[in-house]
Structure formats: structure tokens, C-alpha cells
Amino acid sequence: MATAFYPQILILCLILTSLGFSSMAFTPQDYADALEKSILFFEGQRSGNLPSNQRITWRGNSALSDGTPYHVDLVGGYYDAGDNMKFGFPMAFTTTLLSWSVIEFGSSMGNQLDNARAAIKWGTDYLLKAATATPGTLYVQVGDPNQDHRCWERPEDMDTPRNPYMVSKQNPGSDVAAETAAALAAASIVFKDSDPSYSAKLLHTAMKVFDFADRYRGSYSDSLNSVVCPFYCSYSGYHDELLWGASWIHRASGNASYLTYIQSNGQTLGADEDDYSFSWDDKRAGTKILLSKDFLEKRIEEFQLYKAHSDRYICSLIPGTYTFQAQYTPGGLLYKASESNLQYVTSTSFLLLTYATYLSSNGEVASCGSSTITAENLISLARKQVDYILGENPAEISYMVGFGERYPLHIHHRGSSLPSVHNHPDHITCSNGFQYLNVRSPNPNILVGAIVGGPDNTDNFSDDRNNYQQSEPATYINAPFVGAVAFFSSETTTK
Ligand SMILES: *[C@@H]1O[C@H](CO)[C@@H](O)[C@H](O)[C@H]1NC(C)=O
Ligand SMILES: *[C@@H]1O[C@H](CO)[C@@H](O)[C@H](O)[C@H]1NC(C)=O
């Protein structure tokens, strides 16, 4: 058996080495630095009343009347990227992935665990308001994206319409509602020991929101098309979120109703579909890996299906295997899209490390046809991606702002590029702000920890504020990176 096995691993190692997969560029201290910064970034995205321990001090309070004209309190939450919109769909996904990062790798976060929990709570406090403000509805957005995008304005100055948008029985949104349920359920695990009553509230609300998502089926892209598309249109539909939401509530509660739900609806909701991008839109690959844990830990035999699909997903990323279909840049970066590509790199790295952990703690491997892929292989691939983001790349630049010696200075981000309200308290209007978009000098405020969209398929990056495809940060780029760098920050041995 050893002789049959060895040549395949040798070939794999040669392939991985030729893509540069064997470098060890950063120390655990560097990853710990990146971890701290990756969480700090979320403070720069905060909407609402900033607390006294706010560390990104160039920001001020903003959007304090969100919901007020409609007699609901929708203050708080996160701006999703470089604009001043509160989009509930990516905000919920961000919160789910921050929570998953803490669930899997919180024990490696050391003194950053409290900051990670605070970042999650900033999301869940808002999502709880959005889910409970008006019975039978879920608020899923505040702000008009078309009008917001026509301005270059600090959040503190914002004077564009702050209309709240909701889904309801008549205008359903099973995608955004089930993702919100996933976020609340995942966060309930995070707070189980540190704040049991908050945790119980999160789980209880998750179950109610999931019931609403499942009972009144439809996509929010239909009911709210003009304000959610093309921004965060639910291209993959809502089946993936229903299975993902049920899986998270099952993980959080162990309640048998959700196991029954997964068993009876899994097939219809995409258990057998392979999909190779994991993002705010498409949850299929993440659900497979999440559910594979119950099989690998020998709790639920019939979840073997999810382990098999997790293997297929993993194999799709490994050159030389029979389902390989990923694209890498010449410098070795996973490449999926010309816009905000690094969101796929961080989410994939997180899944690789999570699956590696599930496999290795159960003495298992992934099988890709005749090749066997070990946890160490997955960790090597994830390390290459993380190191690339942190500066081991042909352009010799870190794609995390404030990390390393060279990083993007002209990020597409209103708050970062306009003067701080503390230095320049006078109102800067919607159109006057554009002079700061178009100026050549670096952004005055450093949004420490922000990971930008990243380079193109030839490893080329232009640090240009108008090139939002490459220079805009987003909360869902950072969220899974928090878990990935936590993993590497605690590594004591290198393979
Ligand atoms: C399990 O979940 C179902 C569906 O949400 C709920 O009706 C039931 O009360 C839950 N059971 C327990 C023990 O919490
Ligand atoms: C790389 O980007 C720079 C800056 O945008 C551009 O001038 C150059 O032509 C690009 N190179 C390639 C090979 O695309």
C-alpha cells in the first residue's frame, strides 16, 4: 500500500511546489499581527453610535436615525464595503463567517478572542433588531444603493435617503432570511459560555427567522429587485440558504427537528449539487463541509454524502486531481473573478483549514479518485493563499491595509479617503466629496486590516481608488480570513 500511495503524493508535492506552495514566509507572530488587524477593520465599518472603546478613532457616529421615520430602531450594524449602505444579506453572511471563525479557531485567538466576539456582536445586535422590530417581517437593508453610490460622502455626513426595506409573508426573501437565521445560530454558539442569555436569545430568534424563511418561500431578488440587484442579488436562489440555515441551527441546538428537516429536504435543497465558489451568495460548499463534521465524528452515518461532496469540492482546488477545475494566477493565487477576487480566496482558505481540522482530528483523509489528499496538503494550499494576501506575491505588496511595508494606499472607501470628521468637522456634500475620490494623494485615514479586492489574473494590481474591482474592501472578504490567520498564528510546527 505504501508503494502504491507514494508516487501520487510525490506528484502532488511537485505540483504544489511548482506553484510555490512550500514557502514559509511568515512567523506565528506575523499571523497574530494580521489576526488583530483583520478584526480591527470591522470597527472602521461600524454604523451607529460608536462606543468609548472604539479603536479606529477617525470614525464618528453615523446613521443615528436609521428606521426612526418608520418608528423602528435600525441603528447599528455594518457598512458592507466602501459605501454607506447597510445590506442585510452580506452583513448576515459576514456575521456567520466571523462566528464560524471563532467556533473553529477561537481557541487560537488568544487576546483577540474578545475583539472577535465584539465584532460578531456588532452584527448580531443589529440583526436581532432587524428580525424583531416588526412581527412577521425582517428588515434586510437600509439605504438606497443608487442614490448612495451617486455620492462620495463620509458616513457621518450622509444625507441620502435611508429607506429601510423588508421582506414579509407577501414579499418573501428566504435567501436573506435563512442567512440571517444562520448568522444568529452560529453566533449563539460563540456566546454559549460567555453570555448564555444572549446566546439563548440568538438561537430562539434564529429558529423563528428560519421558520419564516422556510414557510414563505421566495427570493428577495424578486420582491426587492430594484434595490438589491445587481448589488447583492441572490443569483444562486434560496435553496442553498435554507439548507445552510437549517444546518447551523442543528449545529447550534442539536434539536432533532432540524436533523429531520435536513434529511427530508437535503436532496431538494441541493445536497447533491457540486458548486465550487463559496460566497455571500452561494452557500453550497460551506454547507457540505459544515455537515461533514457529523459524519467524520461518527454521529450521523447518512451524512457520508456531505463528506463525499466536501471531497469533490476540495479536489476541485488541487491541481492534478480528476475534478480539478480551479484557476490559479502565475503567482499561485486562486482566481475566480475580476471583481473582489480575494473574497473567494479568503473563504476558500477558511474552508480548507476547517476541513483539514475535521479530517485530521478524526484520522481521515480526502479522496480524489485514486489520489489521497491529506489535511497537511490542504493546510499547505491555504498557507500559500494567506501568504500571498499578506505580501508573498509577484507584485510584492500586502493586500491587507496596514500590514507589512507596502500595502494599498488608495482604497475605494469613502470614510478612508475623505478627511476625518474630527479634523474637518464641516459638512462635505455629496458632490464635493468627489474631489477626494479623484485626488492622487494617499487616503488620509488608514483603514487598518482591510483586505481589498486584489490583483487580476496576471498578479497585476493597480492601487487606484477608481478601480473598485481591485481596491475596495468588504466585510465578507475579511470575515473568513479572521479564522484562517488565527489557525496559522497558533501553529508551532511547520510541515
Ligand atoms: C426544536 O425545534 C422545533 C422547531 O423550531 C421546536 O418547535 C421545538 O420546541 C424545539 N425543541 C426543543 C427541545 O427545543
Ligand atoms: C498592470 O497594471 C498597471 C497599472 O494599472 C498597468 O499600467 C499595466 O499595463 C498592467 N500590466 C499588465 C501586464 O496588465
UniProtKB/TrEMBL annotation:
<feature type="signal peptide">
    <location>
        <begin position="1"/>
        <end position="25"/>
    </location>
</feature>
<dbReference type="InterPro" id="IPR012341">
    <property type="entry name" value="6hp_glycosidase-like_sf"/>
</dbReference>
<keyword id="KW-0136">Cellulose degradation</keyword>
<feature type="domain" description="Glycoside hydrolase family 9">
    <location>
        <begin position="31"/>
        <end position="485"/>
    </location>
</feature>
<dbReference type="InterPro" id="IPR001701">
    <property type="entry name" value="Glyco_hydro_9"/>
</dbReference>
<dbReference type="GO" id="GO:0008810">
    <property type="term" value="F:cellulase activity"/>
</dbReference>
<comment type="similarity">
    <text>Belongs to the glycosyl hydrolase 9 (cellulase E) family.</text>
</comment>
<dbReference type="Pfam" id="PF00759">
    <property type="entry name" value="Glyco_hydro_9"/>
</dbReference>
<feature type="active site">
    <location>
        <position position="412"/>
    </location>
</feature>
<keyword id="KW-0119">Carbohydrate metabolism</keyword>
<keyword id="KW-0732">Signal</keyword>
<feature type="active site">
    <location>
        <position position="463"/>
    </location>
</feature>
<dbReference type="InterPro" id="IPR008928">
    <property type="entry name" value="6-hairpin_glycosidase_sf"/>
</dbReference>
<protein>
    <recommendedName>
        <fullName>Endoglucanase</fullName>
        <ecNumber>3.2.1.4</ecNumber>
    </recommendedName>
</protein>
<dbReference type="InterPro" id="IPR033126">
    <property type="entry name" value="Glyco_hydro_9_Asp/Glu_AS"/>
</dbReference>
<keyword id="KW-0624">Polysaccharide degradation</keyword>
<dbReference type="InterPro" id="IPR018221">
    <property type="entry name" value="Glyco_hydro_9_His_AS"/>
</dbReference>
<dbReference type="GO" id="GO:0030245">
    <property type="term" value="P:cellulose catabolic process"/>
</dbReference>
<keyword id="KW-0378">Hydrolase</keyword>
<keyword id="KW-0326">Glycosidase</keyword>
<feature type="active site">
    <location>
        <position position="472"/>
    </location>
</feature>
